[in-house]
């Protein structure tokens, strides 16, 4: 008896190849992607690469994202498969086969589908794993280890996760069969074909939510606030998109039907009437395509921009090849550090270039209006992180020397420079200390690297002299106590030599300064940074984000394509009877093709246009977020985003052509 069920399962899959083959290919693709990302996460070869540990940390996030999306999407695509099979199962039921017997057939079909998908997906993933490792090595600027390995943990995780997904899909299918009556199964393809009413309230609500999300993106100023509000805006856009495509699309059809000049044409009459019958389901599918397209555009444009502009971001974070920060401005200590660095350079025969040095106070403060409060702890859990700023306080003499200016200020005046955000007041009050008038806002200031590495916005404050700087330092210490910041001496320079020599000089300076600490336990702490050393961390982080974005984009694109395909196939079978009647009453195949093109053009290019609109309005908040990574090149982001949309639009048009042909072949029969 079991052989009969197995035979029926195989026959069912084979005869429904048009819907099962894409479904199985999707399963294979998801399993392949998951294994590749999981393999790279566990690979010892990747771990041993320079920056490999950072890349593995970022890729580990991708495994969770792919697993979650795969579960949701496979449920979604399986619903198309079950919908097409319900009529067949209903016929089995009427002919005397019980629901338990149908359940056995479904179990066999699930086992076969999972076995084919798992074997094929893991096989392809294992074959491509070495290639992915080589690509990773190329991104990190390193070389991959020789040999070919299979990560057992990656295989186990893949089988466990996708095995669980298939079990849940099976249980959901069994639930649907169990709750359906035979007559409902036979007529399942025609269920829900009553044209829904235009839900104007839902459509207006969708417009309002989308407008609010766009407003958030366009008006947000603080990068820290952008982090908090980005996900809120994303959820609002997704919700509004589904509202507009489900409710708005119905309203559109109603409006088109009222337009007699448009509606009463052969190519429009049939297409609009057909769309009006299933707009609720169509709307959900189109909204899904729009959301997936937007995700692809945002991920690719932002991560590609980071990857292309990594050198610029790196130099912003590390203004010089070697940076030495001494947590004291005592001349005895700072002179010792400077002499040590100079002696190492002299010993190696390498002169310092583009020397940069100054004294400053770094401090965190909460700015409410025009008032700065150093004691953030007093706000407790109610602290507004969007109002927290990183303050860098310097003397006007250092500003003039560094920027080649000749500015003068009085004792109660300051000059400020802001990065990542704007400051709109004409004075600045340090709480319980003094109020200072802002003489002017500087247009530019040197990059100190510290500002770039902060998630908070920054304000550079230039005070009259060192005495004023020390007074602010003393007040800040009274607020923070042991947690207060110290005045720092910033000393940095470039070297005209290769990276290996830079690293050697860096290590020599590090050792010599460590010797100063050993001689004098009271010697102030010193931090040394090297661009050549930090470079690999930058490459691994930006490279991993770009690589992960490519993999996720492939997954999302495949999902969007499959939704398009299943939508066309499903509607093709449903519309075949209608077009057959139309042909009998005199409608030609040429007119049918025109009607199909009208329907698909009207419906399928709406998600692309909406995705472009979403991406355009997401630009301000994305640019704010990229500033946290040290990327301030807005022109680059505009160019990359426009290029990504153009390439995606061409691909989208090709998919449209292919799916429209599939639909036409079905209805023309």
Question: Short summary of the structure?
Answer:
The protein has 669 residues and is an alpha+beta fold. The protein has helices spanning 2-15, 17-42, 44-47, 52-94, 99-140, 152-179, 182-186, 200-219, 223-258, 260-263, 266-277, 279-308, 310-317, 331-348, 396-403, 466-480, 499-519, 531-584, 589-627, 634-668; strands at 322-326, 352-368, 371-373, 388-395, 413-419, 427-430, 434-441, 457-463, 488-495, 526-530. The model has no long low-confidence stretch (mean pLDDT 80).
What best-fitting shape do the alpha-carbon axes yield? Answer: elongated
- What is the tally of beta strands? 10
State the helical fraction.
Answer: 55-70%
Q: What's the SSE pattern?
A: HHHHHHHHHHHHHEHEEEHEEEEHEHEHHH
Strand fraction band? Answer: 5-15%
Question: What's the SSE blueprint?
Answer:
Elements: H1 2-15, H2 17-42, H3 44-47, H4 52-94, H5 99-140, H6 152-179, H7 182-186, H8 200-219, H9 223-258, H10 260-263, H11 266-277, H12 279-308, H13 310-317, E1 322-326, H14 331-348, E2 352-368, E3 371-373, E4 388-395, H15 396-403, E5 413-419, E6 427-430, E7 434-441, E8 457-463, H16 466-480, E9 488-495, H17 499-519, E10 526-530, H18 531-584, H19 589-627, H20 634-668
Parallel strand pairs: 3-6, 4-8, 5-7
Antiparallel strand pairs: 1-9, 1-10, 2-3, 2-4, 2-9, 5-8, 6-7
Helix pairs in contact: 1-5, 2-4, 2-5, 2-6, 2-18, 4-6, 4-18, 5-6, 8-9, 8-19, 9-11, 9-12, 9-19, 11-19, 12-18, 12-19, 12-20, 14-17, 18-20, 19-20
